[in-house]
Specification:
D-Maltodextrin-Binding Protein, domain 2, 7-stranded mixed sheet, 11 strands, 2 domains, alpha/beta
Amino acid sequence: MRRNRALFATVTATMTALALAACGSGSTPGSADAASEGAGGNDLGLVQDGVLTVATEGTYRPFTFHDASGELVGYDVEVAEAVAEKLDLEVRFQETQWDAIFAGLDAGRFDTIANQVSITPEREEKYVFTQPYTISRGVIVVRDDDDSVSSFEDLQGKVTAQSLTSNWRALAEESGAQVEAVEGWAQAVTLLEQQRVDATINDSLTFLDYVKERPDAPIKVAAETEETSQSAFVVTPEREALGEAIDGALDELRAEGVLTELSEKYFGEDVSSE
């Protein structure tokens, strides 16, 4: 769903800019206002210098959730931690409900969001996005013994289980399917496995997470959308320098294979690139 990516910049370039700004203001290397080593200076517009404050829900498995011990974990959490380490910043997570997460960003209560935020044209008009760290597609999921569906056109006359508030419902109806209303993925896949519906459309990441936890689940992907949904860190225009610094960190993490490793840890395959 993302149409454009934010400008890419390396961490080195950000460090250089910070150093020049510090010299121009007359700060000394040891002063409290001097840019710290890495990207921890005030020129990044951080809420607290030296700390990357990240908003996340904490209730969105497998991206951001609490494990059995109560620790905040997940794919987005670990990506944010790796980015902060690259920038030589402490990371602090601020758990926030989704409905209030952008308002908190606008109010300056945190520096960025790591919560599978997809870039849309509407959001790009107001915010700055980094390069994506997650890329997914919509998929048709059917029982593993059903070969009658291999495209969205094949959903004509079929019954699909969909949440009435999701975009996937509209796609199912556009494909000619009859929609059985459900509350979410868990109910949809239950109806599918019980052979009470023919298919369900959902995000590929949801499917990958499910089969990773349940490798013997009798379901498979029958078809996928051509269009992708790409998720990234998001900042306000006032913190564009921070967005560019995060971009540089993501470049390094991608080149080092860290994003691939985290993807495979949580999804069983690389979801960090096309």
